[in-house]
């Protein structure tokens, strides 16, 4: 049987005990596979790469080198969280690469969605390969491949347009969660001590806020999106039952607003931000949950008061189909 096929006898990992068994078995296998060699891992802070990092830290400690590339399109606080959890709490060997200018310079003026994705994907690979070439003695490449990636996309991370890896690096792959479904990866992550905000985080596109900053990305509009998105996630996240995915998008148009200077109203042009929340099982179709109007008003007030350049807050009630979940 192919090692990429999940044996029918494999129990669904849905309890801490089963997660511990899986972790113990993987730690043994990883040590046997890797020996005293080094493993390189692109650590985005997403569930899959984070769980793989935590497993490898447990198995081989400092023989793991994590590279976290900040492409400037992460959500508020994400790079800081990766550094705090992995470098400070888990003691990982973590290289943080601030590539924000490189990505945003390359994206300047590019408005076509697929071109934006391609640029982000290509620079990601370039940056990662440059870091890899600076290191010596790396023989393995860790990857957060999970079972649906194998079933749906021949082992390439589904939707993962920025995670493709440099082909010329010639590493042997280490994919400890490749037979697990997403819910199992989360149970294992929790058992490994990762914070809930990492283990249960919402799906987030590989090209990040790049697909939500509609049209050509500018730094100021991207910053407004990041701030507004943090407010939306905080407020909707307080609901007793949170939607499957909730976030903000920022279209590339401006509309008229009014601000008062010395008691006199002045018209000015500003951005609109769009609040999006959906429920779905498989992201193929999606419905829009009811959000209490008071929560929407709090979001509106906080965004208008705190996010420079935004003068309008919209609530997207479109379902999938016909609308996609993301705006690009
Ligand atoms: P759409 O917009 O196609 O999104 O209805 C369906 C789900 O996929 C996520 N998504 C992406 N994930 N890279 C990713 O890793 C992407 O380019 C991408 N585009 C969409 C989206 O957030 C939703 O959960």
Characterization of the model:
The protein is of the alpha/beta class. It has two domains: 16-199, Rossmann fold; 212-316, 2-Layer Sandwich (GMP Synthetase, Chain A, domain 3), CATH 3.30.300.10. The chain is built from ten helices and nine strands. Helix 1 crosses helix 2, helix 1 (16-34) packs across helix 7 and helix 2 crosses helix 7. The structure holds xanthosine-5'-monophosphate. Xanthosine-5'-monophosphate is lined by residues 159-161, 203, 205-207, 211, 245, 283, 320, 324-326. The site of xanthosine-5'-monophosphate has 14 residues, from loops.
Small molecules (ligands, ions, cofactors) in the structure: xanthosine-5'-monophosphate
Q: Overall pLDDT, averaged?
A: 94
Supply Rg. Answer: 21 Å
Strand order of the largest sheet: 3-2-1-4-5
Number of strands: 9
| Helix/strand class | alpha/beta
Oligomer: single chain
Shape: globular
Q: Looking at this structure, what is the CATH superfamily of the largest domain?
A: HUPs
> What is the CATH topology classification name of the largest domain?
Rossmann fold
Number of domains: 2
Gist of the model:
The protein is of the alpha/beta class and 328 residues long. The protein is built from ten helices and nine strands. Mean pLDDT is 94; it is low at 158-162.
């Amino acid at each position: 049987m192919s090692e990429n096929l999940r044996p029918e006898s494999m129990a669904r990992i849905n309890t801490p005990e089963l997660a511990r068994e899986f972790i113990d078995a993987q730690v043994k296998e990883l040590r046997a596979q890797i020996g005293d060699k080094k493993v390189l891992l692109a650590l985005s802070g997403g569930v899959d790469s984070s769980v793989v990092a935590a497993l490898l830290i447990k198995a081989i400690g400092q023989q793991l080198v994590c590279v976290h590339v900040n492409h400037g399109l992460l959500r508020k606080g994400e790079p800081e969280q990766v550094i705090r959890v992995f470098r400070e709490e888990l003691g990982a060997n973590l290289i943080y690469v601030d590539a924000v200018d490189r990505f945003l310079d390359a994206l300047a003026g590019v408005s076509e969605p697929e071109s934006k994705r391609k640029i982000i994907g290509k620079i990601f690979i370039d940056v990662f390969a440059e870091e890899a070439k600076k290191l010596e003695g790396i023989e393995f490449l860790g990857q957060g491949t999970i079972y649906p990636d194998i079933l749906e996309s021949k082992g390439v991370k589904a939707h993962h347009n920025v995670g493709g890896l440099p082909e010329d690096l010639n590493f042997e792959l280490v994919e400890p969660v490749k037979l697990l479904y997403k819910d199992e990866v989360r149970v294992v992550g929790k058992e490994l001590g990762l914070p809930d905000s990492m283990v249960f985080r919402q799906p987030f596109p590989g090209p990040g806020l790049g697909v939500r900053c509609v049209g050509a990305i500018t730094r100021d509009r991207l910053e407004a999106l990041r701030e507004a998105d943090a407010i939306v996630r905080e407020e909707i996240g307080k609901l007793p039952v949170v939607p499957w995915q909730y976030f903000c998008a920022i279209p590339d148009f401006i509309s008229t607003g009014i601000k008062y200077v010395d008691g006199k109203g002045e018209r000015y042009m500003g951005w609109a931000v769009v609040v999006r929340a959906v429920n779905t099982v498989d992201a193929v179709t999606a419905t829009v949950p009811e959000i209490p109007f008071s929560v929407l008003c709090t979001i509106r007030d906080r965004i208008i008061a705190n996010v420079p350049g935004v003068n309008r807050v919209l609530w997207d009630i479109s379902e999938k189909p016909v609308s996609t979940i993301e705006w690009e």
